[in-house]
Amino acid sequence: MIERISTRVTEILGIRYPILQAGMIWASGYKLAVACAEAEILGTIGSAGMKPDLLRSQIQKARALTKKRIAVNIPLLRGDAAELLEIAIGEGIEVIITSAGNPAVLGPRIKQAKGVIWIHVVPSVKHGLKAQDSGAQIVVGEGFEAGGHNGVDEITTLALIPQLVDALSVPVAAAGGIADGRGFLAALALGAEGISVGTRFAATVESSAHRDYKEAIVGATDSGTALFAKKIAPVRALKNRWVEEVRVAESRGASREELERVYGHSRSRRGILEGDLEEGELEMGQSSGIIRSILTAAEVVNALVQEFEEGRARLDRIAQ
């Protein structure tokens, strides 16, 4: 297996392989972050479903298990995003990944923090430029193949990444639809200097998600997910009874207020953490169609790198 894959992403983050484990609501607790960090990639604690005290506890538990650098993902649309950021910085987190909001909101505070690396997730070139101008050192371009909340413009990873690479001077990592070494290789061929992987790591032994949710990822087909709730905030999840109810309401022109009633509250917790496969929101990307087993995080990293190497060798043979 390749000893190291060197890009600006690995240089900035001090990791062996340019792979970022994405921050995922209910699925990315300290166990997954530690396992990924120990596998020489960037492990991430996802704060989206956490209250401040829980985030602090998760960071402290991670710190007790690894000396390697880990990240905390903070969705900027959260009302307590600033408080979560202060906890992360106060606990010595050296990498902050922001998403789902205006990077200028917390950008000045992140840049004030000595030694903190800032990564921001974007769905378009416009947002990428804003992140770069705000001071983000790495930009993750997320295509709408990705699970969870997506950009309103529905730009695919294949189209988004080369445009981001052309427009930005900071390194770009690709997200959305990447779950194996073929996607890893393709992302770097598009000009990305790393990848951010969510759904593949959600279906790992160390993921904090419910076992039934992990099994649902493994059992998903190529057309198993849907993008819905576009009037509220576009989200991709596995099709189930509840998702169909939301989609039917959308198709008959329901107002935002009516959709919010149908959408309800705590649906992602119900699906991902509690394992309700019919009434919960089972956020996952289209890449779920190629995930066929629940592995350890280390096994996922090894597979990504080995498949990357095999794909590169195959292309070398074709080019001869």
Question: Beta fraction of the residues?
Answer: 5-15%
Major sheet summary line: 8 strands, parallel
Mean pLDDT: 94
Q: What is the spatial order of strands in the main beta sheet? A: 1-9-8-6-5-4-3-2
Spatial gap, N to C terminus: 22 Å
What helical percentage do the residues reach? 40-55%
Order of helices and strands: HEHEHEHEHEHEEHEHEHHEEHHHH
Instruction: List low-pLDDT spans.
Output: none
Gross morphology is globular
| Rounded radius of gyration (Å) | 18 Å
Count, helices:
14
Tell me the structural class.
alpha/beta
Describe this structure in a few short sentences.
The chain contains 14 helices and 11 strands.
Structural commentary:
The protein is of the alpha/beta class and 320 residues long. Helices cover 43% and strands 14% of the residues. The chain has 14 helices and eleven strands. It has helices at 8-13, 30-38, 52-65, 81-90, 107-112, 125-134, 157-167, 181-189, 199-202, 211-219, 241-251, 256-263, 267-273, 297-319, and strands spanning 19-21, 43-46, 70-75, 95-99, 117-122, 138-142, 148-149, 172-175, 195-197, 225-228, 235-238. The strands form two sheets. The protein has an eight-stranded parallel β-sheet. It has a three-stranded antiparallel β-sheet with strand order 7-11-10, with helices on one face. Helix 3 packs parallel to helix 4. The chain is globular, with a radius of gyration of 18 Å.
